[in-house]
Amino acid sequence: MDQEERRQRRQKDTKNATIVFVVFLLVVLALVAGVVFAVGKFVIGDKQDEPQPTETGTQETEQVSVTEVPEAPVVPAVDPVIQQAAETVAGMTLEDKIAQMFVITPDALTGYNGVTAAGDTTKAAYQNRPVGGIIYMSDNLTDREQTAAMLENMQAIAEERTGLPLFLCVDEEGGSVARIASTPAFEVENVGDMSEIGASGDPQNAYNAGSTIGTYLAELGFNVDFAPVADVLTNDDNTAIGDRSFGSDAQTVASMVTSELEGLSAAGVYGTVKHFPGHGGTTGDSHDGAVTTERTLEELMAEELVPFQSAVNAGVSFVMVGHISAPNVTGDNTPSSLSKMMITDVLRTQMGYDGIVITDAMNMKAITDHYNSDQAAVLAVTAGADMILMPADYEAAYEGLLAAVQDGTITEERIDESVNRIVRVKLSMGQQ
Predict the structure, then answer these.
(1) Is 360 considered catalytic here?
(2) Domain edges within the chain
(3) What is the mean pLDDT of residues 345-368?
(4) pLDDT tens track for 49-65
(5) Mean pLDDT of 288-308
(6) Pick from 383, 380, 385: nearest CA to 418
(7) Which residues lie below 8 Å from residue 308, measured CB to CB, with a gap of 6+?
(8) pLDDT digits 0-9 by tens, 198-213
(9) How confident is the model at residue 21 (pLDDT cuts 50, 70, 90)?
């Protein structure tokens, strides 16, 4: 092979090597391009899943970062009255708590009839049994000076013993039921029958009646009035309520009741709506024996309970439960004052009431004909009542309730529930 042939051969080999190298390089570049494309597509896809920049993009990013920081839990404000009541009740003995659940006459407290003063005998009796309230009857009330002095002394005795005010109570409805206005020595106006006020159709007249009654009661030292009557007079033959009712129209009665409550409250006196679930549709008198309403719950809610619901919505502090059986609601003849269905299920749960439930006077024959004082007290508290009014035998009722807690029939937590309600109202006196 000559020199020329060798030269041509080298050129050919070089050309072939160049071609191979170029092909190899193209293949490598293609592979790299494919990898880059795949990676780019993956990254772009991830970014599409992220929030896209907007005009407020920076602010949005800052908001996200803030929400990721745990916030301190919001602590709800504690009502100081509720807190103080709980602390007060926690420091009371069981015996004192049970005593707070009774409202009795000064006669029952001292063991003497016709008590007209609050002196050493009253103080000694109250030291032993610091009841939650005292109710005064006509024979305890002689004139303005005597009554004011007695109530002032009684309040001082109570506050010294318990650190709490005492419910000083009276039945002062106006008309035929007026312990003060019916006694000439007091020289106060009797506002008249509620039936006449209701017939006027003007709630302002009911407010004026409440204001008048509340003013002279407060001046004497009373702070709780067992009025107004919230019964709707649906039975023309009813003699137990009669003119004591504002009338036969539920809405009219409701507006009159809430207006009278406002008048009483403006004078510094707590009103008490009565007689739940309504005495106006009955024919009997619970003073004389058993009384029954045949109404169903739906019928009661549509009529008899309308004024009570209105009072509950207005924030009434006391509801008095009557000894009225409602068999078409409860399924038996248990008086409402002893019925868990009527007090807890209907008044508390369905109607939303969380104030003080007080029984009607437990010395009425509707109770005493069928129950001993201790039985009645235990049944009333088990049903949901907070205060027992005038048991026929106060000692037996008190001891029966105490024994029921001690043997587990009633829990002390149940007692605390009622006493908390009582103490809350006492701590709020002067603020209504």
Answers:
(1) yes
(2) 1-40, 80-427
(3) 97
(4) 444 444 444 344 344 44
(5) 92
(6) 385
(7) 230, 273, 276, 277, 278, 319, 347, 351
(8) 999 999 999 999 999 9
(9) low
Tens of pLDDT, residues 170-185: 999 999 999 999 999 9
Predicted local distance difference test score (pLDDT) of residue 64: 43
Round to whole Å and give the CA distance between 414 and 50.
Answer: 58
- Alpha-carbon span 277 to 283, nearest angstrom: 15
If one compares 238 and 423, the residue with the highest pLDDT of the two is 423
The catalytic residue among 107, 287, 345, 416 is: 287
Separation CA 309–CA 314 (nearest Å): 9
Give the pLDDT score at 290. 78
Catalytic residue among 171, 193, 360, 393: 360
CATH number of 80-427: 3.20.20.300
Residue 275 catalytic?
no
> pTM here?
0.82
